[in-house]
Write a structure and sequence with these properties.
Radius of gyration: 12 Å
Order of helices and strands: EEEE
Distance between the termini: 16 Å
Number of helices: 0
Helix content: under 10%
Number of strands: 4
């Protein structure tokens, strides 16, 4: 897990699974490492192809997108 966001090019209409636990080796996306600890990934579909900043610190109030919480 890192404090700064991940700059990711997302594709329109594709479903993504954002890691909420910080254990995934495929950050910022889920790889199933959360199994057995009571966490779930957050799935989302990006409406347009664009570069987005996905939260790395897992403290965002707007998951999966970075809201600057890592600066506080």
């Amino acid at each position: 897990m890192k404090k700064s966001p991940y700059e990711i090019q997302l594709e329109a209409g594709k479903t993504y699974y954002w890691c909420t636990c910080g254990l995934s080796l495929n950050q910022p996306f889920c790889d199933g490492a959360h199994k057995g600890i009571g966490k779930k990934s957050l799935h989302f579909t990006e409406p347009t192809s664009q570069t987005r900043y996905l939260c790395g610190c897992k403290q965002t109030k707007n998951p999966p997108y970075c809201d600057g919480s890592h600066n506080q």
